[in-house]
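G., the chain you wanted modeled:
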Amino acid sequence: MSRTILIEPLTAKDFAPFGDVLDVSGTADKIINQGMCERFHDRALLDFADGRAGISLFSAQARNFPIELDMMERHPEGSQAFVPMSFDPFVVVVAPDDNGAPGQPRAFITAKGQGVNYHRNTWHGVLTPLHAPGLFAVIDRIGEGANLQEHWFDMPYGIETAT
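Predicted structure as tokens:
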């Protein structure tokens, strides 16, 4: 038996305790490239205890609803940004910290073209694309030392759409 989490639309306001929403909402900060490009400047706080920022590519398998959430992870030494390399939505799961373990998880679905940046030490689910290819650019900490903590739930959650 699992517990149920209903998907919410991803908004900057609701996601703020966990990280940054990466999108082109609002007015561009600058017009560049001879007026042919809008720049939406400095959309995420990259935060690393040490090491350096690196860009990696992740290729994840697409998932279908209901999605089972049996584990969450966090990265105590650095933030982690996920930028989809397609316009397909994906599922984002986060939770507040509750004495060193994830508290009540929340699940969001991105709009087309949105990405996320998890703040350092934020509990989050694994990469969960809904469509193939699940290709993402990931900007995170590259450096020495452990930067991954996992928490496995005794009873998994089931993530479902509200419809």
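The CA atoms of residues 19 and 118 lie 4 Å apart.

Shout if anything looks off.
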